[in-house]
Design brief:
mainly alpha; 4 helices
């Protein structure tokens, strides 16, 4: 018996054919167009991505010497934040 056939035997033992969700009658599936569900969907607050910071950063293109960039990257992850911190110190912020 191949490994895949063995896995299929395990799956069929766990989920018999008559318990396949696709074979269930439609009565088991709630009608999402009813007022109950449409009201719930209308009230749902959709949030995507991480929350916006109070002070956001600006994306820009900056040309740096290769050695400067290599030195910051050599210190590991967070090199962009370290460059930002160094620039803030340089301008007195």
């Amino acid at each position: 018996m191949t490994e895949n056939a063995h896995d299929m035997d395990k799956t069929s033992a766990i989920l018999p054919e008559d318990d396949d969700p696709a074979s269930r009658p439609d009565d088991d599936i709630p009608d999402m167009s009813t007022p109950y569900w449409t009201e719930r969907f209308d009230k749902a607050i959709v949030t995507r991505g991480r929350p916006k910071a109070e002070v956001t950063k600006i994306s820009t293109t900056l040309r740096l010497d290769a050695e400067v960039l290599a030195a910051f990257k050599a210190e590991g992850p967070g090199w962009q934040s370290r460059i930002n911190a160094a620039l803030r110190r340089a301008v007195g912020l």
